[in-house]
Amino acid sequence: MINFEETLDLAITSIWRNKVRSALTALGIIIGVSAVILLVSLGQGLQNYIKEQFESLGTNQIYVIAGAGLEGFGQGPPNFAGSKLTLSHVNEISKLGLPIKNAAADNDIPAPVKYKGESRVTTVTGISHNWLDIVNINIGQGRKITKSDIDLSRNVAILGKSIINDFFGNSNPIGKKIFIGGEYFEIIGVIEEIGTQSIGFDIDNFVIIPITSSQRVFGIDSLQSIIVQADTKESIAQVKSKVEKYLLTQMDEDDFSLVDQESLLSTISNILNVLTAALGGIAAISLIVGGVGIMNIMLVSVTERTREIGIRRAVGAKPSDILGQFLIEATTLSISGGTIGIAIGITGSMILNRFFPTSVTPLAVALAFGVSAGVGIIFGVAPAIRASRLDPIEALRYE
To answer: Three-state SS for 158?
Structure first.
């Protein structure tokens, strides 16, 4: 009777004897596992990045958006052209009292910005004087927009770092004028370099002007959204209820939507979870291809080693021993390929992290390893059964 140790030794010896064939057989598993880890790490990294960006903006904010749903959120006209939100609503919400801490207006409009013959289309954001404080955006140079700038509808602007670099290079932009919507605006500040925000806004490419100036220049009386700041994260629900109750006295239910950070993050996370699963599923197809490759090679191996199987049966090996040997060979190939694939996937993820946010989770590694082992077992069963059922006498006669 042949024990497990001997069967394992025979399986490994067979794999080692055909190194090139074994390596090519495992290649499909290597590619599949590494692809799964890479794509899942990209999806997970994007989720983590978005969560961090939301937290950096604060978790005690509520967005009042024009219309029912999120269709107009983050979009310029005509998406909020029919908005019924106005500056008077901002002022009244600010006066509702605790737990409402603050409220600010926001209009984001794509428009060309010009300076000395150079032009680029960017997002021109009209804001209230307290908007920057609510969303935790700091000024790196110059000053913020004040309440006086809002009240007097002054033509002043704060620029993102990317626009400063494009128009002014290393020179000081403060006091210089840019052309927006047919009027000149004096640059009073530069935003600290931030990058793309959680809801897809690249603040470095923004031009920020007073909300009243934005409405005058672009001929818009309404607001795209109102951002409301609660005194604590725990009072979000109370603030939403209070704001909703007030707005329902001013307009219909379908004229506005209330979205808090957690709800928005949850919606985006659900979308990204589906995307991550889809990416992982696409990559997993290559694992199936690798499994078919293992099965084909093992079937060929059974044919090539028919006489060897007959000799083993003649000296006392049971069908279960033959079955075990071929199963071990297939599983070893897939596990070896899976291990190498995991190493390549993790290394590739670390390299990609220099350009895109990635995150390799223990679950992704465990799943990839488990699937690779399962592939070896599942696709190794048919060749193993065929080998174990060979008639010993016929096998010995095989040439």
So the answer is: strand
User: Alpha carbon of 194 to those of 261, 262, 290, 385: distances in Å?
Assistant: 19, 22, 44, 61
232: nearest Cα among 105, 103, 100: 100
Neighbours of 314 (CB within 10 A): 12
Q: Whole-angstrom Cα distance, residue 256 to residue 263?
A: 16
The model scores a pTM over 0.70: no
Burial 193-225 (b: 16+ CB within 10 A, else e): ebeebbbebebbbbbbbbbbbbbbbbebebbbb
Task: Return d(Cα 89, Cα 84) in angstroms, integer.
Answer: 9
Query: How far is 31 from 349, CA to CA, in rounded Å?
Result: 14
Angle value at C-alpha 108, between 233 and 128, nearest 5 degrees: 60
Return the SS3 of 239. helix
pLDDT at 210: 92
Q: CB neighbours (10 Å) of residue 56? A: 14
Instruction: Convert the pLDDT of each residue in 15-72 to its tens digit.
Output: 777 777 777 777 777 887 888 788 778 777 777 777 666 665 556 778 888 776 554 4
